[in-house]
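Progress narrative, Year 2. Work on Glycosyltransferase family 2 protein from Hydrogenophaga crocea advanced from sequence curation to structure prediction during this period.
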Amino acid sequence: MDRSPLLVFTTGRNCAAYVEDNIRSIARQTLANAHVLFVDDASDDGTDRLAQAALQRWLPGRHHFVRNPERMGKAHNASVHLRALAPGYEAVAVVDADDLLIDITVLEQLVRAYQQGEDVVWTNYLSDQGRFGENGPLNRYVPPRQQPWLSSHLFSFRAALLARVPHGHFQYPDGRWLDAACDLAIAYPMLDQTRRWRYLPVRAYCYTESNPGSHHRLAGEAQSLSSPRQRECARIVLAKRPLPRIDEPEADGLHATPAVPAPAEAAASPWTAARLALAVPALLRELPASTLEALDPELLWDWWQWLDTHRGARVLALGDDAHTQALALLVQAADGEALALRGGDGPGHAPWTDVAFDAHHTRLPALDGLGGALFDAVHLAPNAWDGPRAPVVALAALAPQLRLDQPRLVFAGLHPARLDAVAAQIAALVPELPARAAGAGADALVVEACAAPAEATG
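Result:
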């Protein structure tokens, strides 16, 4: 069956003040054959009338309109109304009825990514109050539920994924439809099923945080963009059983592009975690359980062994994830100094900059703000890159910031199958810096002037 390339799923309640601009922002997209499913959730302010008029005016023949006779919520609307229509489309983009698309090419960019074989694609956003979103890339080798929430607006997914999601993933344990954290309820089952993810680093979506009907406004928590009910529902969503992967070659029913299977996840020894907690009690004291569960004790123990023999070291952390937070506590326990630098456009972020070496290139956070500061070690988190993860390029770019007597670099979140090739590249360029695999999943590369780290004393 020939499918249309993209369906925009739009739903909301009492959005009369926003709905015409919402629909107009979709209609002005450069993708001329996008369709819209608009679900009015029993509005009583005339949203349904305004939406139908706007759809007929700007998207004639390219829309479906549904009105719920009673309030059901976004989770219900996705699981019932969207599920019924999705099989006729290649991909689905989620746009709330009070929000806007602000990049007129973004739907075309999404379609191009799906044509290239991706299964889940998202962008960044800003709010109508000038707040910058903090979306970013996910680590393909860490389960999505163990990573920070970096894939909100604009979120999209291959339509075939929805058919594999049970209704229960959109519901409370007692069978009622979730009425908050619905973006998470939609996103995580899609992310579970595949690692063909792509983050588009464009601010393509305007989130209307000023809507008085938003959960955070109703709860009086306008600054957090969250509410107690949203946080409760988020915990319920994250506790759902992850859906099985479908992007292995033998199970791939979405498209013909073969996938490289992700490496099997190796479990860290509980004794390593215990030794680490004993050496650095601040980890248990300062970090929440959700962050602790996302940590790789083997990688952190590797760090602690080095830090304990290089007390007072200055460590630069590029990117931001659970390990970056834990590393800061390890550095502090070793009487050192840690500095974190995250790439992005928002306040407190360093702008992305192009870096290249030989025929390789990528994008890293700009280092200009560091001035002449020198560091003993650098940790690059999986989201330290805005491009290909190219350790050779990063090594060249970071060299001016490193003390050259015994430098250490740790590249986290690499594909284990690439480590030998990357280590060989580095050895050919800098023979005095041997490289080795680290971490429970052997997905980190440690490059350091010394041999294997000495045994810790703490």
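The mean pLDDT is 87. The chain has two domains: 4-251, 270-448.
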